[in-house]
Give the backbone structure.
Amino acid sequence: MNSKTRRDRDGAVAMKPKIFVFCQGCQPGWHYHTALAEDGTAIAGHVCSHHGFAMHDMGVDENGWKRDLYAKHYPDGFEVVYVELNNASKLADYPELAEAFRRNKEKNPDEAKAAEEVAP
């Protein structure tokens, strides 16, 4: 078994749930990143001064920050995936992230309209 798999309650091998990290707003000296679980839960956010710091600051690196928050949400393990969204990319290019956004809207219908304004 590799680090992206786990065993479910019946002992079958299953993929670990994913946490998607992406930048929602990048300007010189200000980069706002969000961590969104595949079940639609927004787990963490962070502003850093350089885009490159996000790998550590948002827990994409194994020894990075925020991983304690991720472990609380997925205590049986998780995989952190960095999604590089830019002007040329569309959310449709990342179907798993798009599904996480859909689930987030279902969980938070009152906030869905506001989220659409900032969603990549």
